[in-house]
Amino acid sequence: MALRGAFRTRCGLLSLLSQRLPHGNHVRGCVSPFLSTHRRNNSTAPKIKVDFDQTAGVSIMTLQNPPVNSLSLDFLTEFCSALEKLEMDKSCRGVILTSGQPKVFSAGLDIMEMYGKSPERCGEFWRAVQEMWLKLYSSNMVIIAAINGSSPAGGCLMSMTCDYRIMADNPRYSIGLNETQLGIVAPFWFKETMVNTVGHRTTEIALQLGQLYSPTEALDIGLVDKLVPEDQIITTATQTMTKWLAVPDHARQITKSMMRKPTIDKLMSKREPDIQNFVSFITKDPIQKSLGLYLAMLKKRKS
Known about the structure:
Layout: H1 3-6, H2 11-14, E1 35-36, E2 48-53, E3 58-63, H3 73-88, E4 94-99, E5 109-110, H4 119-137, E6 142-147, E7 151-152, H5 154-160, E8 164-168, E9 175-176, H6 188-198, H7 200-209, H8 215-221, E10 226-228, H9 233-245, H10 249-269, H11 271-282, H12 285-302
Parallel strand pairs: 1-5, 3-4, 4-6, 6-8, 7-9, 8-10
Antiparallel strand pairs: 2-3
Helix pairs in contact: 3-4, 4-11, 6-7, 6-10
């Protein structure tokens, strides 16, 4: 995996130290790729809220892992479990995925899952990231993303696994895979998901520049499918879901599988090497030292 080479020196992650954090939950302009650097939520409260309308056959899954829906191991485990339960319930035909946190859909992977952890723990975490992608990307249900805030990196990946993306029309929000801004290379399955979404040339430019797009820019390249005022996003997603569910399930599911199976099969065939490569680079002493320096800087800024 190309990530290994990208981490041979400390330069990439040390560039973090020159970056200013966004104020509050405002994510646009923050260059962290798939790393959430906010304080972890240690609450035992559920991180996923599921509201299932059995009459409509549609569930609304709300991400509620304050402050920024960081993708921690606990969050990913709970998310995959909730999605699996809905998948097994044949009366549930569609899911609307949205955020319960203000101004952010998801800020990406939790940096604390990669700092000071054993290789075994890092491997468990990366497997959970893979599992989240696999369950979403291969789901038989219609999944619509109601993106009501910024969605960089891991949040963007989650959005791209959905069948349809509706984003709040707020110029302060952003979405994209911005890994290279830190000297990191997106894993091949991140890359291929984006190629499948916006095409090869647009992905090539986006990934090389680590581009974060405004909602209008994201609509222009096809990264999202529709923009609406933020207070209309769930209503619009519900109306859109009705259109998708009007198509016979078997025909839609087979077509979806036909389009996505090659990408899914590729990760499945390389899943263990992908985990090994991630663990090998993230546990290197220079990388751990760089992460530690970054966390110390954040602690100093918050004090």
